[in-house]
């Protein structure tokens, strides 16, 4: 018969290793298994290791795992020797289950084998853990192309292709309160982009070849100059400023850090700050369709394809606490989506499900508010533009 | 949006490659999916349903993702105390049962039954589960289809919250599921699902070929034919255990050497290669490799010499036993007969009989969960074994040792793990069920039938 406690409550049956959201490496798993192997050996007993791989690890990963385990055993004082030297045979199998990397060691003592294991969440599975969701909330709609927007106390400041407009929150919805026309001196480039930053009542609007500022208090004035140095990032994830190509839709790659130092990178559409294992990094959505990953000191450490050209870094209290919101790769004629990723081991891992939009996302900027970004979508059916607040929410 | 490269790709696809491409179209709303199954399902309770069908109509508080990890469903957030005894679940707002009544904490608390040692209550709109023992795996448990949230009407009819609602039900024969327009996850693309039950595998296969059915269950033999004819099939992870189970209290089976002799005589590879036509995997473990990662530790190789030695130790005329199988299951019969042949080579006489009382039986157990603990529990119940599930078994080593204890005892001799094989009609798109068989068809869509 099944034990009475089991009939009562399933979870008491067995306790599964809890999957944590922290990043793992072969070092950790090697350390875990090495400790168990060392504990299974008698004092001064040496080990002869045999390796099998029945997992989906590729040969280079197997070699890395192999090396890591030997190194960990050595660090624990285990001597590796040959069978002819009387060493105990230890058969190590790299295996896996649906969600775990399973390393098994059979310590073949003469009096009988002992089996020890170490389970870790699979590398890809860790980051894929749906520890967060992206919550999409409609903020504002307009017939004009919304370039960016920013809350101002209870009001909302909106930058579109023609004006900077302050809306106040009324019972019937957003009501226009003040507006000033952007003094464009030349036709805007196709695929117009813009950025809006606010601080208290003051705002700065960044457009291709034009930087404007004004103040919402006392009439919402506007004053512009021919300059195209845009802020990149927001809040603690602020990279500095980057040169926006005036007649195009991308940054030319020249960056001015907050310290004043300058750096020249390949041209990019957008950038996102991301933290991985405590290291600050930067992802740049390049105009070459690749996303490039850089260290905080702007050393290129890799890249990948498959992301859209708009990305925004956000910090949150979920998962690895640093996510990148990313548009899908598609064209203007298609619906779009924004998905959250974390960077683990130098590569992007999706977290949670993507949120979809009825048309292409034409703007995606990080907001000063923690865990939040703003996205603007062009509804292909209605032709209108809609701005959304995207917030990272912990699933549990 | 990818700004420039995709325009180029689009241009290329419109010119040079257009003639050879098979264009993907956007999902199409509408249509009815015709599904045929072998089981005859009664209406009374989803507990009687094949687990794969339950997610069509019912949701749980949480559900498992493709990697088997729990995520939000009717509950959008949860928290627990440090001891994992008190859990609080915040419900998704605005969800209604198919009968229109709201899904609130009181309704969930009234529905959910976790046993006498877990109290479930509604506190201020939050569902609270207070367990007597730590329940660190509660989320995985709640994701099991046994714990879906439903509302039982006065007539006993149940109402769920899933993407489809029951529109028509002829017990054991035929059912129509209609799209839930208010589904919290978004209305499914399909207008409905027509479920035809109690269909012989052969008939299902024919219906698929004739275009009368869109999704059918295939026997191993029919799956091979379907593949040869170029039909689209889908194969799950191997989640059904086929085992030889000794009945307790019957003389031959009470002898450990006898059980071991039988176990050692079985040629699993032959069963896998010939009878199962290489579907699934031969296994010496109760749980499949994809669930535990350590099933490979249990040997599957035949040891005829040792089996003969053990059989030779029995008094003349030698050991003998009876083996039964489900007479409605040709595969069980084939396996039983193969085991008898194998055993005879070890000088063990096994008489095979359909149904009835016997010393051994061919057992087939479908696992409902990819969670090792729940899966092991299911096997323990189905096979009347207690050893592997006695707590505590917090470590994988402990779980392995518990399973090894059962295997060494040889009252249950695992033979193989089989997948579910489905035939999928050509007009069916986005067929992406869970690897362990749960059907979520809200994202499936169908092309219109051609006249």
What does the model show?
The complex is a heterodimer of chains A (396) and B (451). Helices cover 11% and strands 50% of the residues of chain A. By secondary structure, chain A is mostly beta strands. In chain A, the strands form seven sheets. Chain A has a four-stranded mixed β-sheet with strand order 1-2-3-4. In chain A, strands 5-28-27-26 form a four-stranded antiparallel β-sheet, with no helix packed on it. Chain B is α+β, with helices and mostly antiparallel strands and 451 residues long. Chain B is 26% helix and 24% strand. In chain B, the strands form six sheets. Chain B has a seven-stranded mixed β-sheet, covered by helices on one side. In chain B, strands 16-20-15-19-17-18 form a six-stranded mixed β-sheet, sandwiched between helices. The two termini of chain B are 39 Å apart. The relative contact order of chain B is 0.15. Residues 4-25 of chain B have low confidence and may be disordered. At the A-B interface, helix 1, strand 2, strand 3 and strand 4 of A face helix 1, strand 4, helix 4, helix 9 and helix 12 of B.
Summarize the SSE layout with pairings.
The complex is a heterodimer of chains A (396) and B (451).
Chain A: H1 4-8, H2 26-40, E1 47-53, H3 59-75, E2 88-96, E3 100-109, E4 112-121, H4 123-128, E5 132-142, E6 146-152, E7 155-160, E8 163-170, E9 173-181, E10 195-199, E11 202-207, E12 210-215, E13 223-225, E14 229-232, E15 240-244, E16 251-256, E17 262-264, E18 268-276, E19 279-286, E20 290-295, E21 300-305, E22 311-315, E23 322-327, E24 336-344, E25 347-357, E26 361-366, E27 372-378, E28 385-394
Parallel strand pairs in A: 1-2
Antiparallel strand pairs in A: 2-3, 3-4, 5-28, 6-7, 7-8, 8-9, 10-11, 11-12, 12-13, 14-15, 15-16, 16-17, 18-19, 19-20, 20-21, 22-23, 23-24, 24-25, 26-27, 27-28
Helix pairs in contact in A: 2-3
Chain B: H1 5-14, E1 32-36, H2 54-57, E2 62-64, E3 70-72, E4 75-80, E5 86-91, H3 105-111, E6 118-123, E7 126-131, H4 138-143, E8 151-152, E9 158-159, E10 164-170, E11 174-179, E12 192-196, H5 201-210, E13 215-217, H6 220-228, E14 232-235, E15 240-246, H7 256-265, H8 268-275, E16 281-282, H9 289-292, H10 304-312, E17 320-325, H11 330-345, E18 349-354, E19 360-366, H12 372-383, H13 396-409, E20 412-418, E21 421-424, E22 428-429, E23 445-446
Parallel strand pairs in B: 1-12, 1-13, 17-18, 17-19
Antiparallel strand pairs in B: 2-3, 4-5, 5-7, 6-7, 8-9, 10-11, 11-12, 13-21, 14-21, 15-19, 15-20, 16-20, 22-23
Helix pairs in contact in B: 7-10
């Amino acid at each position: 018969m099944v034990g009475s406690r089991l009939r009562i409550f399933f979870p008491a049956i067995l306790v599964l290793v809890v999957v944590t959201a922290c990043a793992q490496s072969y070092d950790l798993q090697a350390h875990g298994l090495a400790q168990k192997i060392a504990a299974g050996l008698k004092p001064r007993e040496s080990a002869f290791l045999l390796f099998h791989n029945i997992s989906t690890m590729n040969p280079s990963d197997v070699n890395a795992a192999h090396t890591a385990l030997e190194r960990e055993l050595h660090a624990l004082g285990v001597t590796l020797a040959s069978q002819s030297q009387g060493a105990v045979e230890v058969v190590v199998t790299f295996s896996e289950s649906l969600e775990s990397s399973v390393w098994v060691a059979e310590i073949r003592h003469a009096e009988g084998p002992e089996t020890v294991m170490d389970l870790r969440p699979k590398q890809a599975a860790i980051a894929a853990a749906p520890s967060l969701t992206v919550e999409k909330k409609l903020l504002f709609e307009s017939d004009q192309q919304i370039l960016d927007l920013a809350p101002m106390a209870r009001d909302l400041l909106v930058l579109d292709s023609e004006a900077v407009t302050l809306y106040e929150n009324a019972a019937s919805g957003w009501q226009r309160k003040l507006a000033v026309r952007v003094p464009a001196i030349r036709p805007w480039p196709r695929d117009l982009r813009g950025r809006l930053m606010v601080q208290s009542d003051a705002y700065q609007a960044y457009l291709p070849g034009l930087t404007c500022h004004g103040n919402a208090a006392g009439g919402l004035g506007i004053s512009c100059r021919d300059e195209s140095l845009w802020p990149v990032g927001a809040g603690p994830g602020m990279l500095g400023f980057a040169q926006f190509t005036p007649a195009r839709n991308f940054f030319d790659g020249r960056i001015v850090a907050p310290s004043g130092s300058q750096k020249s990178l390949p041209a990019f559409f957008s950038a996102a700050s991301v933290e991985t294992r405590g290291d600050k990094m930067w992802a740049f959505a390049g105009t070459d369709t690749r996303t490039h990953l850089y260290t905080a000191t702007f050393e290129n450490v890799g890249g990948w394809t498959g992301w859209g050209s708009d990305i925004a870094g956000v910090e949150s209290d979920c998962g690895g606490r640093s996510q990148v919101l990313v548009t899908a790769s598609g064209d203007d004629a298609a619906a779009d989506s924004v998905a959250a990723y974390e960077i683990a081991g130098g590569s992007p891992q999706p977290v949670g499900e993507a949120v979809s939009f009825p048309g292409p996302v034409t703007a995606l900027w990080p907001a000063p508010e923690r865990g939040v970004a703003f996205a603007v979508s062009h509804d292909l059916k209605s032709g209108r533009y809609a701005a959304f607040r995207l917030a990272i929410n912990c699933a549990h | 949006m990818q700004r420039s490269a995709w325009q180029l790709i689009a241009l290329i696809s419109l010119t040079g490659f257009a003639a050879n491409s098979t264009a993907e179209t956007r999902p199409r709303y509408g249509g009815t999916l015709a599904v045929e199954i072998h089981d005859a399902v009664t209406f009374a309770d989803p507990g009687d349903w094949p687990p794969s069908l339950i997610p069509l109509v019912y949701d749980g508080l949480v559900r498992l993702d493709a990697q088997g990890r729990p995520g939000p469903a009717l509950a959008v957030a949860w928290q627990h105390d440090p001891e994992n005894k008190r859990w609080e679940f915040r419900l998704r707002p605005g969800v209604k049962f198919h009968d229109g009544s709201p899904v609130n904490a009181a309704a969930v608390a009234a529905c959910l039954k976790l046993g006498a040692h877990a109290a479930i209550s509604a506190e201020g709109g939050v569902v609270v589960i207070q367990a007597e023992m730590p329940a660190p795996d509660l989320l995985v448990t709640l994701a099991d289809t046994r714990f879906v949230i439903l509302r039982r009407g006065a007539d006993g009819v149940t109402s769920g919250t899933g993407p489809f609602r029951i529109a028509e039900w002829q017990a054991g024969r035929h059912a129509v599921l209609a799209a839930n327009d208010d589904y919290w996850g978004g209305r499914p693309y399909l207008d409905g699902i027509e479920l035809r039950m109690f269909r012989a595998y052969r008939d299902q296969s024919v219906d698929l070929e004739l275009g009368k059915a869109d999704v059918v269950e295939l026997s191993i033999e029919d799956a091979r034919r379907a593949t040869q004819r170029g039909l689209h099939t889908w194969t799950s992870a191997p989640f059904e255990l086929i085992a030889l189970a000794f009945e307790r209290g019957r003389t031959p089976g009470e002898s450990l050497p006898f059980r071991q002799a039988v176990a050692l005589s079985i040629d699993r590879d032959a069963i896998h290669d010939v009878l199962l036509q290489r579907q699934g995997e031969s296994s010496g473990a109760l749980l499949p490799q994809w669930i535990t990662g350590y099933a490979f530790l249990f040997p599957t190789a035949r040891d005829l010499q040792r089996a003969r030695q053990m059989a030779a130790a029995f008094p003349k005329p030698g050991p003998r036993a009876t083996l039964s199988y489900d007479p409605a299951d040709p595969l069980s019969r084939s396996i039983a007969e193969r085991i008898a042949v194998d055993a005879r080579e070890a000088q063990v006489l096994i008489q095979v009989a359909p149904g009835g009382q016997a010393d051994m039986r061919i057992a087939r157990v479908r696992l409902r969960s990819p969670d090792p603990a729940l899966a092991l529990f299911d096997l323990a119940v189905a096979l009347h074994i207690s050893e592997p599930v006695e707590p505590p078994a917090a470590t994988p080593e402990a779980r392995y040792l518990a399973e090894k204890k059962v295997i060494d005892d040889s009252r249950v001799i695992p033979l193989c793990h089989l997948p579910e094989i489905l035939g999928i009609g050509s007009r069916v798109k986005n067929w992406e069920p869970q690897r362990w068989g749960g059907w979520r068809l809200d994202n499936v869509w169908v092309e219109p039938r051609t006249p």
